Amino acid sequence: MPGIDVDVVIAGGGVAGVVTAAALREFGWSVLIVEPGQHAERRLAGELIHPPGVAGLVELGLFDADEFVTAVPIRGFRVFRDGDDEGIELPYGDGRRGNRRGFALEHGAIRAGLEASAKRLPLVTLWRGARVVDLDLSHRAAPLVSIARCGKVETLGCRMVVGADGAASTVRGLAGIAHKRRRLSKITGYLVRRDRLPAPGFGHVFMSRIAPLLAYEIGGDRVRVLFDQAIGSDETPADHRRRVIETLPPPLRAALAAAVETQRGLGFVSADVLVAAAGRGPLALVGDAGGSCHPLTATGISVGIGDALRLRKALRDRDGDTRRSVALYARRRRASQRARHLLASALHETCSRQDAPSRLIRDGLLGYWESNARGREASMALLAMTDTRVLAILQEMACVVLVGMTRAAQQRRSVVDRFVASTRLMAALSALLLRHVPMVVKAR
Q: Does residue 19 carry a pLDDT above 90?
C-alpha cells in the first residue's frame, strides 16, 4: 500500500492554485504546487478581482500591500451606449455584504505577487517546470500522482489532489471527469493609456450595436481593452474592430485605433466549459478547472478564490476527511456556478446578438439601470458574485419588464401599445432563459 509523501498536490501554480495552498495551511499539511511555468505575459487571463475575491485574499493573508502596490482600486462598472461618454454607474454597493472595492492589475503582476506570498507560507513547495502526467485515485489511503520534472517522472502518494490548472485542465481529464466545451467568441486585447478612459476607477462595458467591448485599468497608467467577436462571424477581425471602434467615445476611439495599428494584440477563444463533476474521490477542481464561462462579467479570479475558501470550509466541516470533504465542496459549489453561467451566457448573448429581441432586452436593461438605483446595485451584486442566487437573476429580469411597462405608460402610449411592448419584452426574456437554463442546470 502506498504511503503519503506529501499531503496535498496542487496541479497549477496560478491564482487558484496558490490561493488554495494558502487556504489549506491551517490543517498543518504539506503542500506541493506543480506548475509547468507558462508565460503569463503572452496570453490574456483574469486581471480584475471583485470585492468578494479581494476579501478572500485579505482573509488568507495574501493581499500584501507591497506586492500589489500598483493595483488599481475598482468601484464598480460603467455601462455605455454607442457614443456615450457618461455611462451608467453600477456600484459595488454600500459595504453591507463586505468590501466595497475590487482591484485590477496586469495578470502577470497578480501571479508574481501571489507567488511571492506563497513562498513565505510554511510547508508549501513550488515545483516550477513540472506537470502532472498521471493519476491513480483508486488507493483510498493515498492516491498516487505522477509528476514529470527535469526529464524524469516521480510518483508521490498524497491525501488529496487539487486541479487548479485552468479550463483545459489536464488533471480533470486524467481523473476521467467529462466536460463539454462550447466556443463563444474570439477575444483580442490591446493597451491604451488611462487618461483615454471615460471613467477611471471603473470597469467599462461598451454595449455597442456591433458587439460588447470590455475595458479596465491594469496599473502603470495602462488600460486593457478587449474586443469580442462571435464565433461564426463572417467579418474579418480587422473590419470587426474598425466597426466597434467607431461606436466608442472620441478619446478612446482615437487611442484604440492607434493601438490596433501598432500593437500585436493578445488573444484567446472564450468558451463555456461545463464539467460533469467538480470533484471525484480525493480530487477537487477549483477555479476554471471546475468550469468556466464568458469573461464579460470578469469573475474568473474571484471564483478561484471563492473555491479555495469553500474547500477549506468543507474540510473543516468533515474533520479533514478528504473524500467526504470533496463531495461536500462540490455540492456547495453547484448553486453559485449555475448562477454564474446563467448570468454570463445570457448577458453575453444580449450584448453580442443584433436581432430584434436582443436589442429589445438591451434597451430594457439599460432603461432599468438608468431609472433604478436599487437595480443598479442589485445587478452589480450579481455580476460580482456577491449575490449568487439564480432566483435573484430571475427577479432582476422581472424588474426589467416592470420598468419597461412603466416607461411605456410615461410615454402616454395607448393601452394596446403598452401591452404589445411589454409582451414583446417578456417574450424576448423568456426565450433567452429557455435557451440557457437547460445548459446551466448541468453546471457543477
A: yes
